Amino acid sequence: MLTTGQLSVGHVFRLLPKVMGQESISLWLMFSGVGSALNLLSVLLQYGVGIGGPVASLIALLFTLVISVVACFVHYAAIHAADMRLADRPLQAVQTLWIASHRFWDYLAMALLMGFVVTVGTLLLVIPGLFVWIAFSLALPALALRQFGISESMRVSWLATEGRRWRLLAIWLVCVVAGFVALIGVGLLFAALFHLLGVGPVAVQFLMVCVMDPVFTGASLVVTGAVSTTVFRLMELEAPEILEA
């Protein structure tokens, strides 16, 4: 059970092995499988059946939306999986998906709202986008773990991150940089493997879209879910008066 701890880069990442267990791996594999299957079906409908023009674009958009919804669902479940690990009460991946089914549409609405707000901030300039992202970075775990409403979750996140945004920025920058390095490393490894096997560029593109993209996205979902949960629970210990709202 997490009873003490400091909100810092080192402490958050030292806790990651504790909060990411078998259920996180299962959620990652589930998303990778579902995402790969949906991408493959989309490609087959567009190119295998020969559907083109506006219909092909509509099919691609539809499958993208479905995958995005599935991604939100898995991310929501990953937050609960990490939280149960922190509480020393790990659950099976199926159980975390069942928990995530409750209030999922609120969570999806929150995710869409967050995406819109951050996008607007980024369009204004990159710095406002980062500021908004950090200021509302606790909104999703607040909604998931404290059962706050959408507006209350955003308000609590704004208040709780005040005076701590540089630390939060450092935590998330380390997460992003580590993910980017891992992505490049794995990408180069597979590029070398494809080259040795003589795989053509069309097949490589097909594998990247249908297989590698869901695998990388799934890993990002479970890792960011674990990090945001850890940060939220550490913030509870540091600023209990705000998160008791």
Topology (elements, then pairings):
Blueprint: H1 9-19, H2 22-48, H3 53-86, H4 93-101, H5 104-124, H6 126-135, H7 139-146, H8 150-161, H9 165-197, H10 201-238, H11 240-243
Kindly describe this structure.
The protein is an all-alpha fold and 245 residues long. The chain has one domain (9-102, 161-243). 84% of the residues lie in helices and 0% in strands. The chain has eleven helices and no strands. The protein has helices at residues 9-19, 22-48, 53-86, 93-101, 104-124, 126-135, 139-146, 150-161, 165-197, 201-238, 240-243. α1 crosses α10. It is globular and about 60 Å long. The two termini are 22 Å apart. The mean pLDDT is 84.
Give a quick account of the main beta sheet: strands, pairing sense, barrel closure: none
Q: Indicate how many domains the architecture comprises.
A: 1
Calculate the terminal CA-CA distance, rounded to whole Å. 22 Å
Order of helices and strands: HHHHHHHHHHH
Uncertain runs are none
> Could you say which overall geometry the principal axes of the C-alpha atoms support?
globular
Secondary structure tally: strands: 0
Radius of gyration: 19 Å
Number of helices: 11
**Beta-strand level of the residues, as a percent range?**
under 5%
Supply the helix-strand structural class. Answer: mainly alpha
Oligomer: single chain
Mean of pLDDT: 84
Amount of helix:
over 70%
How would you sum up this structure in a few lines?
The chain is mainly α.
